[in-house]
Amino acid sequence: MGSVVISIDAELGWGFHDLDRLPRHRVENARWGWESTHTILDRYEVPATWAIVGHLLLSECDGRHDDHPTPPDWFERERNGWADRDDLRFAPELVERLVDSPVDHEIASHSFSHVLFGAPDTSAEIAREECRRAKAVAAEWGLSLDSFVFPRNEVGHLEVLAETGFSVYRGRTSLPEGASSVLATLARNESLLVEPRIDSHGLVDVPASVFCFGFEGTLRRAAERLWNDPMVELARRGIDQAAESDGLFHLWLHPNNLTTPADADRLERIVEHVDRRRSTSDLQVETMRQVGDRARSADTPVVPDATEASASVTQL
């Protein structure tokens, strides 16, 4: 039985709050992208793992977080430039819609405030507080967080994840990202399937296969005019490979990657293909939590430090 996992880095403004230059089109369309992503998944009854920045579960705060061990300027944009941008700082109504959805989405963690766990100045104390606060605010919603997605895919402090009660995380594969890699992978017809593994901390690493928005700009427009959207072709190939085997295809994206109707169309074409193959084969759609449960029940071999060594590429 093959399976597909879709994991989603749900951030709104928090994915960019530490940057000097903001990608305005993504920031200002972040809510539209979130709502579009959720609508498409629910339309086809495809569950996903929504890794949500914990601060978005709040309804209000003073913007200071004085007892958080991050540097004093970490929340500076929230206090000042975004003091009147509740739409970027909070999202309880978006989370509530996910929780109330008839589709069984997993609510996972993307840390509390998008701290980069792999950064040299992120101490174990900071990582621990990010995990603790994310868990605490989720508990106020009656939610238990099992899966973790590292901000900007910077894997680090795995011991802290285990200590604070997480059991699954999204790791990286050795497949490089970017347009040239997408075209080369399509040309070589290589496998896009990944293997879950248990690391030395007892955590299940569910590696990513493909980033849904890895072929953009002028090259994307040219490819669509001459042929098709390469990301749709690549995702369909991975879905087909999973449907025809016992392997796992893991697609990931940010809702704020959806900034135009064409972006929403890309995601819908992929999700539609998942639904089609699910109806004509034994293909299953799983969440990261479900893959983790399956890996532990199958006595998956322990592979120490495999993902930390491969976490060298950052994708905003």
Main pleated sheet:
6 strands, parallel
Shape descriptor: globular
- Spans of at least 5 consecutive residues whose pLDDT stays below 50 are 306-313
Query: Structurally, how many domains make up the residues?
Result: 1
According to DSSP, the number of beta strands is 10
Which value, in Å, is the CA radius of gyration? Answer: 19 Å
Range of strand content:
5-15%
CATH architecture: Alpha-Beta Barrel
| SS-based class | alpha/beta
CATH topology: TIM Barrel
Number of helices: 13
Q: What is the CATH class?
A: Alpha Beta
Provide the helix percentage: 40-55%
Distance from N terminus to C terminus (CA atoms, Å) equals 32 Å
User: Could you tell me the mean pLDDT?
Assistant: 92
Name the CATH superfamily classification.
Glycoside hydrolase/deacetylase
The topology string of helices and strands comes to EHHEHHHEHEHEHEEEHHEHEHH
Domain NodB homology: 36-151
Protein name: Polysaccharide deacetylase
Region (Disordered): 278-316
GO molecular function: hydrolase activity, acting on carbon-nitrogen (but not peptide) bonds
Could you please describe the fold and organization of this structure?
The chain is α/β, with parallel strands linked by helices and 316 residues long. It has a single domain, classed as TIM Barrel. The protein contains 13 helices and 10 strands. Strands 1, 2, 3, 8, 9 and 10 form a 6-stranded parallel sheet that branches. The protein has a 4-stranded mixed sheet with strand order 4-5-7-6, with helices on one face. A hairpin with a 5-residue loop joins strand 6 and strand 7 (204-205). The longest helix is centred in the C-terminal third of the chain and has 20 residues, at 261-280. The radius of gyration is 19 Å and the shape is globular.
